[in-house]
Amino acid sequence: MEPAKLVEGFEFDDHTTSDVRVCFKLIDEQPEWFSCHSPVLSQNSKYFADRLGQNDIRSNACVEIECPRIEYDHYVKVLKLMYLPGESIVDSFDSVKAAVGVLRASNSLGCKSVTKGCIAYIEAASWDENEEEEILEVARSLGSEAESLLARLQAPSADAVKNVFISAVRFATCMETPFPPFLDDLKTSAQEQIDFMIHEDDDTALVTMDEDVRSVVQEGLAKLFSGLRAQLAMLATEFDLSPDQAEKRILCSLADIDWIANLLAKIEMMHSFVSGWSEISDNVLSVVQDKKYTSGLWAVKAKLIEVTGKALDAVGYGTVVLPASSRVHLLKTWLPYIQTTKRLLDENIKDEMSLQMDSDMFQNIESAIVSMVLAFPSDDQADILSEWMKKAEQFRYPDLTEAFEVWCYRTKTAKRRMVGGLNSASNPTVSFRA
User: Fold this and answer.
1) Domain BTB: where (predicted)?
2) pLDDT tens-digit profile of 8-17?
3) Cβ–Cβ contacts within 10 Å for residue 89, how many?
4) Residue span of the structural domain in which 149 resides
C-alpha cells in the first residue's frame, strides 16, 4: 500500500530515519522487522506509547509482539495505516473481511485512528452472514465506539417490524392497484419473507396479533378473493385467445390464495379464509365445471382441490367452528367436484404428461371429510352416506366406511339412549353412598 500522505514527514519502514524496530513474532518462523518511528507509534497507539515509555525498550530500540499467524498481515497493515492521515484510512480497504481483521488488530494495539477508520468502512459496506458474526464478536469488545456497527445489528423496534410487515402483506396480496406483471418476482419474495418473519417467537407474536396487521391481512384476503372472481369472469374470453395463458393467470390467483391460507393458519385467522372460500365456492365451481373446460384446466382443477382441502381440514378438526348448516353446505358443495376430478385424474395417471397429485394430500382431505361427516346432525350424515353408497361403484374416493359404521352404531343406540334419558328425567333416582 502506498501512503497517500506522509504523517509528520515520516515514511513507514524507512531505515534511514527510523529509531525503533517492530517485530510480530511467529512460532517456528523467521521474524521480520519493520523500521518505524517512535513519534508515530506513540501518537497513534496506546500499546506502543506504553511500551516505548519503558527504559529497556528505549535502550534496545525494538519492540517484539507475539502474533497469531492468521492475524499477521492485519497487524502489519495496522503499522502501515498509522502513517496515513485519518481521512485516508477508510479508502485503504477493499473488503469487509480485511477491515474486520485490521479492526481486531488495531483494537488490541489501542490504535484509535485506525479503529475509527475500520469502523467507518465496515459500517458503510454490505456484509454477508459470516462476516456479520465476526463483526458482532469484535463490536462487543469496542464499547461505545461500536455504536454505529451495533445500530445495524440490533433488532428493530416493534413498530418498525409492524410497518414493514404491513407493507409486505400489501405487496404480497397485490393490494396496490394496478399491479404490474413485472413485479411478480418481488411479490413472491414478499410472500417468502413474510413466511420467514412469522416463525414463532415472542416479538413476532406481538406483531401478528396487532389489530392493524390483522386488518391489513383481512383486506389482503378479500383482495385475493375478488381478484380470483375477476379472473374467472374473464376466463371464457381469455381461454379462446390463449388457453395456456388463461390457465396460468387463474393458477397465479389460486397460488396467492393458497399462500395466504397458510399465513392465516399460523396467525389464527382461518375462520376468515373458510368463510370467504365458502362464499365464492358456488361461483368458482359454476365457471370451472362449464362444459367448455371439460378437457382442460387440469392444473386449475387440481389446485382447487388443494385449496379446498385447507378449508375442509380447518373445519373437520375444529380449528374453525361453523354452524352445522354451513359445514354441511361446504362439504356438499365440494364433495362431488372432488370425487369427479380425482377419478378423472386417476384415469389419466398412466399418461406421462398427466398431472400427478399428492397422495398424502388426498389422504388428509379424506380424513378431514370423515371428521366433518361424524360431526353433522344424524339426518345430514344419512344424506351424505346414502349418496356416497349410491355412487360407490363410480367413485371410490373418499372412503367413508368409518363414518358409515359409526352412524349405524349411533342410529342403533340413539332411540334407546333417548328413551332411557326421558325415563330417568321422569323418575329420578338418587343414590347416596358412604
Assistant:
1) 18-83
2) 678 998 888 8
3) 24
4) 20-153
